[in-house]
Design brief:
The protein is built from nine helices and eleven strands. It has 384 residues and is of the alpha+beta class. It has a five-stranded antiparallel sheet with strand order 4-5-6-7-8, covered by helices on one side. A three-stranded antiparallel sheet has the order 1-2-3. Helix 1 crosses helix 4. The longest helix has 16 residues. The protein is globular, with a radius of gyration of 23 Å.
């Protein structure tokens, strides 16, 4: 077998560098390297040998690996080094299932493995194997098997290329957000953003949303972004609750809805919907809604600052022309979007069934996106 870390495609590398989404500066940067084989799983290979299992056979048989991990769960959980090595081995095995699969990481989130259609958070997957019943394990095996066999509908679109700012163009500056300490029921300060260590979130924290008011600063950020767009770009701004109807899913707690439309028919409009949660929903272009936060539960451990990073990245990237949509994609007629960060720091994309929408709206979206094939245009600058 040679070395203990030659079981997967190519030489082992480190995990991909987390993509930062917090900067408001434009800077050049190469696309992140594709990572399919991560090193650091030798302790798991040695563990397999002690138990009389062949690691190379497990690496090529995900079903067998899943059941092996299920039976060895308690031993793996007791050793943090071994547990981390196991997660890497399992992730490499999943990446091996499809030629378009890879490891991905974003700042403030654990790495995942998958493709554009499906992502697997390996650490959480391993935790689940220790607590679910056999039927759930069989379900996971079926999901992996179906995903491995699923045909690729169509090659992904080339990522859009945002423009660099014009000389003297004002930069967006995030307004100060209030510093507030939040407390648990026991009166202890909650260190949001750094609650969980190497063992991950408390299982009970997934169903708890103890202080949603910590996201109130997102309303301040949204209004600052609207002011920035208004000052820099040639746009029409309409503050009217009726524009909440741009969302694909209706919200009942709308406080304000502002639509910012660039005066260029090839550029994507943005609709900001401020909600009573508190949170912000942004409708971008024709078929995509982006929620901020995505989830406010204690396990996700988000803060107004981390969510604001993503909100700013979306808005400033759309304005810079780093946003594209496609619909319908492939035989499944899915909706797709791609974002290439305005500052060159990373990219993201998504694909799936479009959110529930009237047939007429989907037809209009199809026609509209044919007109902007290749991506939405950068917004025109004020006075240009």
């Amino acid at each position: 077998m040679g070395t203990t870390e030659d079981l997967f495609e190519g030489p082992p590398t480190g995990l991909p560098a987390p993509m930062s989404r917090g900067s408001a500066l434009y800077r050049g940067g190469a696309d992140p390297a594709v990572v399919r084989h991560v090193g650091g799983y030798a302790p798991f290979v040695e563990f397999c040998a002690v138990r009389g299992a062949q690691a190379d056979e497990l690496a090529s048989d995900p079903e067998r690996l899943i059941w092996f991990l299920r039976s060895a769960g308690p031993q793996l959980a007791d050793d943090s080094t071994l547990s981390a090595a196991t997660a890497i081995f399992a992730g490499n095995t999943i990446a091996r299932l499809r030629p378009d699969a890879q490891w991905t990481a974003y700042e403030g989130a654990p790495p995942t493995v998958g493709n554009r259609q499906k992502q697997f958070e390996v650490d959480r997957l391993l935790e689940g194997l220790r607590s679910v019943d056999d039927a759930a394990v069989r379900g996971l095996v079926a999901v992996l098997s179906d995903w491995a066999r699923e045909e690729r509908d169509e090659s992904p679109a080339m990522p859009p290329r945002p423009v660099t700012p014009a000389a003297g163009q004002p930069r967006y500056v995030r307004p100060p957000l209030p510093a507030v300490t939040y407390y648990s029921r026991e009166g202890e300060p909650i260190p949001y953003g750094r609650q969980w260590g190497a063992d991950g979130p408390d299982p009970d924290s997934y169903s708890v949303d103890s202080h949603p008011e910590r996201f109130a600063g997102l309303h301040v950020v949204a209004r600052a972004l609207i002011d920035h767009l208004t000052a820099v770009y040639d746009v029409d701004v309409q503050d009217d609750p009726a524009h909440a109807g741009d969302l694909l899913r209706e919200r009942g707690d709308v406080l304000q809805a502002v639509k910012v439309t660039p005066r260029d028919p090839g550029a994507a409009a943005l609709t900001f919907v401020l909600t009573g949660y508190p949170g912000v929903l942004v409708h971008a272009g024709v078929l995509q809604d982006f929620p901020f936060p995505v989830c406010g539960c204690d396990a996700c451990d988000e803060t107004a600052e981390t969510v604001a990073d993503r909100l700013e990245m979306l808005v400033l990237t759309v304005a810079a022309g780093g946003y594209s949509e496609r619909y319908p994609v492939g035989r499944k007629r899915w909706s797709e979007y791609a974002l290439n960060a305005f500052d060159g720091s990373g990219s993201e994309s998504g694909q799936g069934e479009p959110a529930p929408a009237a047939a007429a709206r989907l037809r209009d979206a199809e026609v509209r996106l044919r007109e902007v094939d290749g991506g939405w245009s950068p917004w025109p600058l004020r006075g240009s």
